[in-house]
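hey can u run this one w/ adenosine-5'-triphosphate bound, need the structure tokens asap thx
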Amino acid sequence: MSEHIEFEEEEFDSSFNGQTIRRLLSLLKPYTVWVLGFLSTVMLVSGLDSYFTYLSALMVDDAIATGNFAHLIEIVERYAALIVVQAVAVFIFIYLAGILGERIRYDLRKKLFNHLQELSLTYYNRMPVGWIISRVTSDTDRVAELVTWGLLDVTWSTFNILTALFFMWQISWQLTLIVMVIVPIIIVVATLFQRKIIVQYREVRKVNSKITGAYNETITGVRVIKALDREEANLKEFGNLTGEMYRAGYRAAWYSALFLPTVQLISSLAIVSIVAYAGVTVDGSSALSVGGMYAFISYVLFMIWPVQEMARVFAEMQQAVASGERIFSLIDAVPDIVDKPNAYDVEHLRGDIVFDNVHFQYEEGKPILSDFNLHVRQGETIALVGPTGGGKSTIVNLLCRFFEPTGGRIVINGHDYTDLTQHAIQSRIGMVLQTPHLFSGTIRENIRYGRLDASDEEVEAAAELAGAHAFITKLEKGYEEQVGEGGVLLSTGQKQLLSLARAVLAQPDIFIMDEATASVDTLTESLIQHGMDNLMKQSTSFVIAHRLSTIRNATRILVIEDGRIKEMGTHRELLKLGGHYHRLYTQQFRKEVVGQVDDIAALFEEVATVEEPAADEPIAVRSITNGKVQQGELVAAD
Ligand SMILES: Nc1ncnc2c1ncn2[C@@H]1O[C@H](COP(=O)(O)OP(=O)(O)OP(=O)(O)O)[C@@H](O)[C@H]1O
Ligand SMILES: [Mg+2]
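ok here u go:
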């Protein structure tokens, strides 16, 4: 949370960057005609605004003061006609700006989305998810806003001021000169104010997101907080945060309140000059008419608005440009893993898999695997076990080519896998992850992701093989049941079953499973086991195993620790060795079977002394617990 807030707020010092602005404007290129249409209507509206004030001056001086009724009617008619024109123009530009904004937002999001799908996992490794989400949501909003409404406001304001000056010049060029001195002062003052206001509001937002984070932590961690007796400390931290927010909000309100009176004060300087000029020259030849004076005062008073608008847009522009920079940095990010220009496809990935002196590091200087060698024969089932952080997931990530070895090579069926296309590899690998991911949609759709052209019958057959059919048919809508966003409506075990069904449907050449450590009920567990057995029969499999049953079914067990293969062999071989596996086994799996076996030590000894056991022979032992004879699992003890 806090990480992404920092990213969110890094925008502060980013200065104007001409190149980014040009690139932002180029987003409008596909819509040149619309942009021209909306800019010209904006100019029309803004010019008419200035003209109306001029018209009223004419009305007073030429018609009312002289009592020329016919002329008055004529002016009123012109006024009415132009009002209609203006109304239509307003409709057009608001409509066009709205559509343009949507198009730009859509274009940007589509571009980002496409690019995000291409980027390698290493990018996601570096960038927090929150950061990426803000790029796609708030940054695209800000940029779309800038290139439509921002552009509109600036055009309107600029044109409004220019046309006002033009009409003022018609009335009195001397006074116009005075105004031309004052207007830039107002612009500078207004910009300074807007900057300050925006900085304070940004501060408010920043503290606010911290507060949201604090709420989030408190609510989700409420039990822990209570258990650790941290209420007092948390309350104090929270108090500090809200205090900060209050102070920033207070300053923002202070500047906002001060802004208008200050600008009005400055513009009243102009008004005083106008009135004084009109009074002084009342006998002179260049005397200001009543209508002229009225028009001038209106122009000056009214000019505050375009000036304020411009100041606001310029102040906000900095932020929008920073948003643009971040969006472009994402769009420009190059995927680390790209297919070689002459990469080729292969029909299948069956065959031996060889890790040949593989070296790998996520971060420079922190090697996870060095000189890693492994030869897996077609059809083998490899169980990876070992302490947390040992490198098990890293090995399968490399195999899937989510990451590539930083040294050495991985050879599949004789092909260095970097010579193949990513598609060739990833489409032939079936994966069930520790926390399986489902997409919103129905169960049927989710299974069908395994192979998009599968028929309904094939989907159901796969579910049956994976052991998922039973629970699906018990659901109210069966295969048409919605799984919710990310599958929230299903349990972890059910999600794993669906992922398995997906993999069964895909009939992958290589099957990878990161077993869930989360407790799954025994029935689901045996279903999952059944589904896996099916897959393991037809594929070369790598299973990061936490369950004894899986490990025992493997052709080979690798004990991975510190990125090395510490031990390798079958269950029995490794037990006999009495090393890492033996220790791991006694510590990790004892609980799975404890209670089923009384004399653990004796049983272990008995099995450990068995010579040359057949690999596929189940190690089931009979044990006596509480006087009942039951089917138990082997358990070892020190
Ligand atoms: N995305 C990553 N970026 C940087 N380092 C990582 C990343 N993933 C794993 N590591 C590091 O690589 C090492 C091996 O991690 P890995 O996830 O392969 O272990 P594991 O054996 O799968 O552990 P577990 O049983 O907990 O899943 C660890 O030291 C870990 O800190
Ligand atoms: Mg792991």
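Residues 1-14, 595-638 have pLDDT under 50 and may be disordered. anyway lmk if its weird
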